[in-house]
Amino acid sequence: MKKTALFAVLAGSLTFCHAQTTINRDAEIENMVKEVNADSLQSYIKGLVAFGTRSTVSSVTDKKKGIGAAREWVLSKFNQFAAASGGRLTAFVDTTTYAADGRRVKTAINLGNTVATLKGTDPNDNRIFIISGHMDSRRTDVMDGVADAPGANDDGSGTAAVIECARVMSKHAFPATVIFVTVAGEEQGLLGSGYMAKKAKNQNWNIEGVLNNDIVGSNNSNETNIIDNTRVRVFSEGLPAYELDKKAKQIRQLGLENDGNARQLARYVKEIGERYVDNLEVVMVYRNDRFLRGGDHTPYVDSGYTAVRITEMNENYNHQHQDVRTEKGIVYGDLVEFMDFEYLRKNTAMNLANLANLAKSPGKPQDVRVEVRSLTNGTQLMWKAPAYGKVKGYYILMRETTSAVWQKKIFTTQTDVKVPYTKDNYFFAVQSVSEGGNESLPVVPVPGR
Length: 449
Fold this sequence. Notes:
Elements: H1 2-13, E1 15-17, H2 27-35, H3 38-49, H4 67-82, E2 89-98, E3 109-118, E4 127-134, H5 156-169, E5 177-183, H6 191-202, E6 206-213, E7 231-235, H7 244-254, H8 261-276, E8 281-285, H9 298-302, E9 307-312, E10 325-327, E11 330-332, H10 341-360, E12 366-371, E13 379-384, E14 391-400, E15 408-412, E16 416-419, E17 426-434, E18 446-448
Parallel strand pairs: 4-5, 4-6, 6-9, 7-8, 12-18
Antiparallel strand pairs: 1-15, 2-3, 3-5, 7-9, 10-11, 12-13, 13-16, 14-15, 14-17
Helix pairs in contact: 2-10, 3-5, 3-10, 5-10, 8-10
């Protein structure tokens, strides 16, 4: 009788649907995705390559060659978009003096990130979402700041994705703030992103998600000769780098080794990306980055922010960190001719869909808890409304403990719900949902009484 009654209540108040399938595409986001243009992306990369080198230790005063000319060119693009944004988009080059470190910087340099901010329209919503790529390039010798280093894919592709997202999104308004940044110093040791993450921490920025794009525009690998422009990787940390000592006991107690904030963002990127971009599979990789390597999202996760790295499925090391040359019939170097601009279009569109959906969503539900006073085969979840944004309702997310992705979504307008699934066998989370169907990032419940 109790089970029947429970299901009757559920039938009257909840709607079941499955994640990882196309639910409903927001018409505004769908149109923005269609605006992402492969020819525009190609023009950006050709413009970047034309500066010869974009090494962080190259000239910042030469008007035609080097990192200084490149960052001013990116700024000119942002300012062009700002002129048509109705005052919502503003841009500048954020500079600092970086002292010689005895490693990859021999003398003090002027380090600069080019930053464009699309201010949110809700004055009560202080959330920030960031898309990042690094504008600097390198030769085999990372200390060579003079000779040419085209950097078409590494990371002209990530920079182009940032510029294109700014172009399209600047025409639209979002409740939350979106920052588009092309950083310098990645190849010298994540200097630009480290500077920005430290600044964000010192100034108390409410960053809810960072999408770092590094090497996202080529479709083939050397050695294995795999060619595939239908998959892209998203890397996310498992155990949090920030204050793990304080969190480890609860993580172990609740079995949340695979449910940190970065892992939740990776699942979100997969679901939203596949919802809006056809013929693209987002492949989650359970590492913060590639094996023993690093990227510009790392300073953010080290500071306690939620950040992931997005990278093409098959890297080609003949075209990465290589001087341009031909040896034994093999062309080395990071050249435009090795790019796949349709693949880059899809990866850029995937980023845009996620940024737009996040920026249009309400805030995350607050104080999400699971009832633990008694042993039951049902699970009672409770939460409070988000601090900002109008909600249509909430999704309760479910997955088996062995599943990589959320398997079921249960829609409700309530904030105290009991579902007929045991917390022993499933993981749960709760999302806020806007009137237009845009979902916040999920929040995993903690024990409550």
